Amino acid sequence: MGNVVTRFPYGVTNVAENSLFADMPRPDDTLFHTYFNDFDVYTAGDWVVTETDAGATQALTAGDGGWLLVTNTAADNDLVALQKTPAAFSFTAGKRAWFRAKFKVNDATQSDIVFGVQVVDTTPLDVTDGVYFLKADDAATVDIICRKNATTGSVSASAISTMADDTFTTLGWYYDGIDKITYAVDGVVKGSISATSAYLPDTICTVSFALQNGAAAAKTMTVDYIYAAFER
Question: Which segments of 76-119 are extended strands (E)?
């Protein structure tokens, strides 16, 4: 038996009854600031690209759903990082936020990877502010970090997932607008970390991801999509 579909002929809305948009038969998109890139199109000017060595490339590649292929240069610790410009997301108490990304790397152990929402920084593997996933060199395990100011404090959960070579994974988090960030791996909720005012970023952030070599060999990362939505 297939999935049961409920049809609402008069539409579905999230609008308050006393709102100007109360009779609109669809959700109100203005309640959220949303960024979604499925990489059917890649515009280099939309990103601040940091490369430690000239020659790294970022380009669309063939793949179901639209893929961006990031190819690094070949020296150990060579880095290529992309940050959406300009920065446009702020964490605010009382306002919820969501993030999700699907990607893979050719070498799940000898590479450093970061995905999330971070302050603009040329060192995305160790930023001062952000909520992000981090996979360090010499391990295939992924951590999640919530960080406010390098000198103030951060909280994290270690080894929430284990990556495999050339295998897509989907990582996501949800900020409840109060004091908690819940994280999921491949659509399954795995746990949560604190997001109190001691740890929640207090500066404007942006969608960010990066790849750094863990050995003297070029690494690749393929990004299927990246998504962020913050409640206004």
Answer: 79-84, 97-105, 111-118
Instruction: Dihedral sign for Cα 223, 225, 231, 232, please.
Output: positive
Query: Exposure of 4 by Cβ count < 10 A (0-12 exposed, 13-18 middle, 19+ buried)?
Result: exposed
Q: Across-strand partners of 162? A: 141
Write out pLDDT tens, residues 96-108: 999 999 999 999 9
pLDDT digits (tens, 9 = 90+) for 155-190: 999 999 999 999 999 999 999 999 999 999 999 999
Distance in angstroms (rounded) separating the CA atoms of residues 175 and 181:
4
How many whole angstroms separate alpha carbon 78 and alpha carbon 111?
Answer: 10
Give 19's contacts (C-beta < 8 A, 6+ positions apart).
28
Classify strands 169-175 and 153-162 as parallel, antiparallel or unpaired.
unpaired
Q: pTM score > 0.85 for this model?
A: yes
* Residue 66 contacts residue 197 (beta carbons within 8 Å): no
Task: Show the tokens assigned to 63.
Answer: 């793949």
Instruction: Name the residue type at position 14.
Output: N
